[in-house]
Amino acid sequence: MLKPMWITLACTLAFSALGTATAAEPIVIKFSHVVAEQTPKGQGALMFKKLVDERLAGKVKVEVYPNSTLYGDDKELEALLLGEVQIIARSLAKFDQYTKSVQLFDLPFLFNDIAAVDRFQRSPEGQKLLKSMESKNITGLAYWHNGMKQLSANKPLRTPEDARGLAFRIQTSAVLQEQFQAVGAKAQPMIFSVVYQALRTGLVNGTENTYSNFYNQKLNEVQKYVTESNHGILDYMLITTSDFWNGLPPDIRSELDKIVVESTAHANQEAERFNQQDKQHVLDAKTTEIITLTPEQRNAWREKMKPVWAKFEQEIGPDLIKAAEASNKAQ
Ligand code: LMR
Fold first, then answer.
1. 17 occurs within a structural domain
2. Which residues form the signal peptide (predicted)?
3. What is the rounded distance in angstroms from the CA atom of residue 211 to the CA atom of residue 229?
4. Percent of the chain at pLDDT exceeding 90
5. Residue 3 lies in a domain
6. Buried-state track 23-59, b at ≥16 Cβ within 10 A, e below 16
7. pLDDT digits over 1-16, tens only?
């Protein structure tokens, strides 16, 4: 005799409910980023995955997608907010749509070196910025270093006048736009994955980036000169959505919080070494001359670029700028 339809349906539902309860699927964390694996961010992401595999096996599974293979920097934040990915480490230059205060990190010649950046990021003011996008469902978990930015072009850039009339690729940032306009150059915002082609085809003449990104994107093949200007920084905020992070079971979230701290320490310890190593790789490749500026030459760049601060002072907050400047003095 045929069972009535409702009994079959009820049995199926009961079994599938039981299935979910007994064999819970691990929580999947997709970690998408745009750089190569042999970079500070690439290594930080892999360390995060390794620690999760060791400590939360069966409960959490991390999938890392490097090199814009899943999303480019134009789509990654949208994907995060839509729940398509759960963690990204986005350049601090790419948040101005969501918060004006994080633009602080783009101000040219604000930080003397990465140690000063580190001191600021650890300060109460720096930590507060991690939470500045909570109302938009974005929560900052940590800062990850890449390093100091250098200028590059196909002509030697020694004085700010050398940059006049050139087009530079920038990350999407109003501050960086003004920074290049301040030296009479044109700034062209562009996603990271197309920079090599844009330089190769002459769509833009130059760019700014860390040695790590410069070498790993093979930009040395299409740029004859790097000027070691250390005029700004390229760092990241490791972010997730508040909904996702707060919705995790408390024991898993507290383990993940510890893993974030450890993978941050790893990424940040390695960042400077990666940049120095990639500087050496550029030298070894003999494609690109690295120009060292005299203190006077570097000062001329500072004089031209620093007036940009005034344009953003109100948006960013004068006190925040003061706190960042104070971090240049080692305690
Ligand atoms: C860039 O666009 O140059 C960087 O933000 C890429 C990155 O994530 O380091």
1. no
2. 1-23
3. 11
4. 92
5. no
6. eeeebebbbbbbbbeebbbbbbbbbbbebbeeebeee
7. 344 444 444 444 444 4
In a domain, 292, yes or no: yes
Label residue 23 by pLDDT band (50, 70, 90).
Answer: low
* CA-proximal residue: ligand 1, atom 1 (nearest): 192
Q: Is the CB of 205 under 6 A from ligand 1?
A: no
- Round to whole Å and give the CA distance between 83 and 304: 42
- How far is residue 141's CA from residue 125's CA, in Å, rounded to a whole number? 15
Tally of structural domains, the chain = 1
Q: What is the pLDDT of residue 4?
A: 46
Alpha-carbon span 77 to 298, nearest angstrom: 35
Domain that holds residue 217: 25-325
Report the distance separating Cα 331 and Cα 325, nearest Å. 13
Can you point out the beta strands (E) in 123-260? 138-153, 167-170, 186-189, 206-209, 225-241
Domain of 77: which CATH number?
3.40.190.170
Torsion of CA 137, 140, 145, 147, to 10 degrees: 50
Ligand 1 probe mutation, 76, 146, 210, most atoms within 8 A of CB: 146
User: Of 39, 42, 146, whose CA–CA distance to 94 is shortest?
Assistant: 146
Cα 126 from Cα 53, distance rounded (Å): 30
Distance 215 CA to ligand 1 centre (A): 13
Q: How far is CA 52 from the centre of its chain?
A: 21
Quick one: pLDDT at residue 330?
79
Q: Please tell me the pTM assigned to this model.
A: 0.92
β-pairing, 206-209 vs 60-65, is unpaired
Take atom 2 of ligand 1 and give the residue whose Cα is closest.
192
Element (H, E) at 202: none
Q: Does residue 267 belong to any structural domain of this protein?
A: yes
